[in-house]
Amino acid sequence: MKTKIFGEHDEATIAQIDRCVAAGGERAVLCADGHKGYAQPIGGVIAYTDKISLSGVGFDIACGNLAIRTDATRAQIAPAMEEIMNDVMCDISFGVGRTTRTRIDHELFDDPTWEITPLRELKQSAAAQLGTVGGGNHYVDIFADEADRIWVGVHFGSRGLGHKTATHFLKEAGGKDGMDVPPTVVSDASPLGEDYIAAMRLAGRYAYAGREAVARHVVRGILRANGLEEVHNHHNFAWQEEHDGVRYWVVRKGATPAFPGQKGFVGGSMGDDAVIIEGVDSPASREALFSTVHGTGRIMSRTAAKGRFVKVGGKRIRKEGLVRHDEMMKWIAEKNVVLRGGDLDEAPQAYRRLPKVLAAHAGTIRVLHTLAPLGVAMAGKDIVDPYKD
Description:
By secondary structure, this protein is an alpha+beta fold. Helix content is 30%, strand content 30%. Helix 5 runs antiparallel to helix 6 and helix 6 (159-172) packs antiparallel against helix 7. It starts with a strand and ends in an 11-residue tail after the last strand. Residues 308-312 and 385-389 have low confidence and may be disordered.
């Protein structure tokens, strides 16, 4: 069997990963947080021998998670969480199309890859956005672990740079728009494929730099603490890896590498626990191409959770969604979490529960730390996530 499946999934998600295999995928994995995405499911992993999937990497190239363990303690931080989260919202730009409040100089802007089309036209706006977080389920959180040590966690990607880069290459490759379409796959040796891989890797460096800038500022500039350990990786990316003696392009969308001893930061839903995990070696791990979840995975769409606009008597009104605001706020209050931003489409009720998702991957990962949220910061109400993945 080409596809290794963890957890339970609906027929539409299974059909998506089957289409990816039919389009040239040699091996496939569907993680327990999987759900429908654009052409390839979130939580889906496809391995190609000499091709790369542009739609598999997706629109938010190099979206990823970073967690920093600090030398601060719960006793030092918890009493000041209201002020701390106010500072997070003041210092860091959240939302679509935002620019950073403090320009960040970085050596990645000296990379000659910026001369590739369309990167040369995107360089200036990318520089202005470095260190901003974006919308949707992207966040800056502050946690305490089982030993009351404080961690800072962030989740976001390559911002407008990644979205516009993906859009350009998908158009050049003749990709079809929509969710229920075949993946857009190109040869890694073609001029288009070579340019895309170079652009993807630059977007990866950019995303790393942005997450580091934001998380390190929260640690040093807001908490006045020191960072002791960083756990960092992408989950919308393609890596060249060897599995069972074969060299592949492993395209992970909403899934993250988990090689033996490799650590990962997996967030829960808004206000829910997160974990630090470590990959282990096992037959199941090898079948999984050493891949695991990046989060919990949605169980209802954004419009289902939040509601959508419908026309009634010629007027547009909002149809009530499946999640109620009072239910969401009760959940947050019971967790004693200080929330800034967020909306019903990111409510915990719209997501799976993390322990069940992790249990489906038993034998491939181990949990090193459980992180309880103290503060959550996200883009505010009515900020739409344009990055689709």
